[in-house]
Amino acid sequence: MAYGFDTPATFGKFFPDGEFAGYEDFLEGYFEEASAEGQTTQKFFTDFRSDLHRDFHKGRRSVPDALLPKTFQLAKPYKKLGDIMGLGYAIAVPSSLLDIIEKLEPGRHQSWPIDITLPSGDGYPIQYHMLNVLTSLDAWDKEQSDPGSYKKSMRIFKMLRPKQNYASGIALSREVIGDHHIWRGFVSPETGISGFNFYVSDALKEAIDKAGLITPPFYQLKEV
């Protein structure tokens, strides 16, 4: 079976309060220099930033190394951070979880080390990596899903909320999932469903549980 999870929208160990200090200023300076040298197709910084944000959250190609945020400053001294965290541009995972993912599907996603610093200026004692999940699958099987678990909202289909009450009624195609172990769902006016931020295979979920990692709640969907 597959599982879905979201990164929380409120501050906590899975969404720590903090910032990529200086990153926005860096991006603007990068854009101005690239624009002056004719190396960007966007006319305005807002378009450049919007395209970069889309690449991080919906893209299927790696973001250039020069544009990756690499330092995150915590706003308060968390005693323990989650083993999957939302850091705005991508999720962050410790080396232990990244190793598990790489063993299951080597080289499939983009990752890079992130320096997390405490308000004191000291480094957080565990090494984290940003993980840009580059797989997007249109795995939803509408015909085999429970009609009471989703609805048509405006132009797209959406899983009913609260998601944990309806996840088990959402069917995903085992054939489409194939050998993938972590992915984002694909949704458009023509196909797909708006559901969880991320999905994982039962093999990855089992490995996470075995390692005793602390994650946001995972909710089981059905594969058909």
How many discrete structural domains?
2
Molecular shape: globular
Give the SSE order as H and E letters.
Answer: EEHHEEEHEEEEEHEHEEEHEE
In whole angstroms, the N-to-C terminal distance is 9 Å
Major β-sheet annotation: 6 strands, mixed
Summarize model confidence as the mean pLDDT. 95
Number of helices, where a helix is a run of at least 4 consecutive DSSP H or I residues: 6
Number of E-state strands: 16
Helix/strand class: alpha/beta
Please give the share of residues in helix. 25-40%
Order of the strands making up the biggest sheet: 2-3-6-7-5-4
Radius of gyration: 19 Å
Portion of residues in beta strands equals 15-25%
List low-confidence stretches: none
Please characterize this protein's 3D structure.
The protein is an alpha/beta fold and 224 residues long. It folds into two domains: 18-132, no CATH class; 136-223, no CATH class. 25% of the residues lie in helices and 24% in strands. The chain contains six helices and 16 strands. The chain has helices at 23-36, 45-58, 95-104, 163-166, 174-177, 202-211, and strands at residues 3-5, 18-19, 71-74, 85-86, 91-94, 110-117, 128-132, 136-137, 150-153, 156-159, 171-172, 182-185, 193-194, 198-200, 219-220, 222-223. The strands form four sheets. A six-stranded mixed β-sheet has the order 2-3-6-7-5-4. A hairpin with a 4-residue loop joins strand 4 (85-86) and strand 5. Helix 3 packs antiparallel against helix 6. The mean pLDDT is 95.
